[in-house]
Amino acid sequence: MIMPSSSNDNGRAYEYICINVLYREISKHRKAVLNKTLGYPKAEESWNRIDDDMRTALRCSAEGAVEKIFDLEPMMLDGDDTLELLIQKDERGKEGDVRDILVIRSNVKWEIGFSLKHNHFAVKHSRLSPTIDFGENWYGHKCSKEYFDEIAPVFEYLEQKVEEKAKWEDLPNKAKDVYLPLLKAFEKELLRSANLYDDVPRKLVEYLLGEYDFYKMISEDKRRLTILLAFNLRGDLNKSVKKKRLKIVLPRTCLPQKILYTGLKEKSDNTLIISMDEGWQFSLRIHSAKKEVERSLKFDIQIVGMPMSLVKIDCYW
Fold first, then answer.
1. Burial zone of 313 (CB within 10 Å; 0-12 exposed, 13-18 middle, 19+ buried)
2. Minimum mean pLDDT among 46-50, 140-144, 242-246: which range?
3. Which partner from 123, 153, 173, 284 sits 20 to 30 angstroms from 12, CA to CA?
4. Which helix (H) or strand (E) holds 274?
């Protein structure tokens, strides 16, 4: 009997098949080496755990996007040096690098990265706690004393519940006692910082999307679709080869200058919407990742609006 695979296994397995399909297709044109250290072993283990139907879907998703990837990045196929492909360890994401797969040409100091997602658009899973200064971590400006004073009673309440070994389902009103006051304090502090510092909107997006330009590759199995999103914030993607004309030309992705709106998502008591100019919009859902009450909470942050300058390519398979 085949056990159903977890979303974590599916995500890692997607990394495994994507890097192997890229390696196979690149090797038809040039020398390439597949680095099987770092994050590769865990990805391979997940691939071996998933069932045949999921393997077929993920393989089709990877193969469906390869031609467009080569059109976007001709330097993958051009050259007589050796190209290296690797899967990064998860720790790199915590350090600000959201890319799962790297394709590297060391002799010309060129690399391209892919962030892979299976059936979701999440970008970050940052935490709030009584000691985490999200302002300093996210956009480089410290949170105020007022913010920490405002969240202190909420985390004191959670500390009490941790000592009681309570579960989240045991709390009589999670929204009123935890989610809403934390979101209100977070929203107030974000807007305070944005009023003081002009660079907050830009740095906020750079934090949420990571330190490097990259392609987000999303498999939507039910639609038999692979979505490629080109986050070309710094102009590092889409380099031409020997002055040859690019088949697809990527513009530079525009960063925001202003926060236009913040507020709760309609009919939600745990999700904040942040809208900025240039078309950027994010949803931040606050939640606990475990059944037991913890001393911190996690954000599930997703892109719900994107600028016109961000190129999206649909690859059906």
1. middle
2. 242-246
3. 284
4. strand 271-276
For the record, the structure tokens of 146 come out as 């007022």
Same-domain pairing of 200 and 218: no
Q: Is 95 exposed, middle or buried (0-12, 13-18, 19+ CB in 10 A)?
A: exposed
170 lies in the same domain as 238: no
Predicted TM-score (pTM) of this structure? 0.90
pLDDT band at 15; cut points 50, 70, 90: very high
DSSP H or E stretch at residue 273: strand 271-276
Domain count for the chain, please give it: 2
Q: How many CA atoms lie within 13 A of 22 on its CB side?
A: 29
Task: Output the CA–CA distances (angstroms, integers) from residue 272 to 1, 116, 136, 210, 253, in the order listed.
Answer: 42, 25, 20, 21, 24
H/E segment holding residue 41: helix 40-49
* Residues found in the chain: 317
Domain that holds residue 200: 124-205+255-305
pLDDT of residue 76: 95
State the distance between the two ends of the chain, measured CA to CA, in whole angstroms.
29
Phi, psi angles (nearest 5°) of residue 260: -95, -30
Q: Do 100 and 51 sit in the same domain of this protein? A: yes
Whether 140 and 70 map to the same domain: the answer is no
Same domain, residue pair 274 and 248: no
126, pLDDT greater than 70: yes
Tokens of 196: 């003081």
Q: Does residue 232 sit in the same domain as residue 141?
A: no
Residue 1 included in any domain: no
Adjacent-strand bridge partners of 272: 264, 284
Provide the pairing of β-strand 259-264 with 311-316: unpaired
Give Cα 297 distance to the centre of its chain: 18
